[in-house]
Amino acid sequence: MSNTGDFVVIKALEDGVNVIGLTRGTDTRFHHSEKLDTGEVMIAQFTEHTSAVKVRGKALLQTSHGEMYTDTETDAE
Ligand code: TRP
Questions:
Q1: What spacing in Å lies between the alpha carbon of 4 and ligand 1's midpoint?
Q2: Is ligand 1 within 6 A of the CB of residue 22?
Q3: Does the pLDDT at position 77 exceed 60?
Q4: Is the CB of 8 under 6 A from ligand 1?
Q5: Does 58 score more than 60 pLDDT?
Q6: Number of folded domains that form the chain
Q7: What is the C-alpha to C-alpha distance for residues 2 and 32, in angstroms, rounded to an integer?
Q8: Residue 33 lies in a domain
Q9: What is the CA(32)–ligand 1 centre distance, in A?
Q10: Which ranges carry the Tryptophan RNA-binding attenuator protein domain (predicted)?
């Protein structure tokens, strides 16, 4: 597999949002942590190295599965 995975868009709604990449394979561990401040956007793919992404802090996420906020029960409109 190369870099043909889905994209995920993360927009920080507060300072210090963390976007953490977790490794693909038998060993699931953090391999990258990116800090975003308010209004900053990260567009990331799932790759041969990255099988999961963890987001900490208030953010708006857009994926092929829909749009959601990290901090509420309510989906984005
Ligand atoms: N070097 C990583 C990779 O190719 C970069 C990366 C891709 C990443 N997607 C990510 C880092 C999501 C954090 C979160 O897999």
A1: 12
A2: no
A3: no
A4: no
A5: yes
A6: 1
A7: 18
A8: yes
A9: 7
A10: 5-70
CA of 54 to the centre of ligand 1 (A): 11
Q: Domain containing 13: what range?
A: 3-70
* C-beta of 61 in contact with ligand 1 (< 6 A): no
Q: Is residue 3 over pLDDT 90?
A: no
Average pLDDT over residues 44-63: 97
Any domain includes 77: no
Structure tokens at 13: 């709604």
Q: Which helix (H) or strand (E) holds 68?
A: strand 66-69
Burial 4-13 (b: 16+ CB within 10 A, else e): eeeebebbbe
Specify the CATH number for the domain of residue 36. Answer: 2.60.40.50
Give domain status of residue 28, yes or no: yes
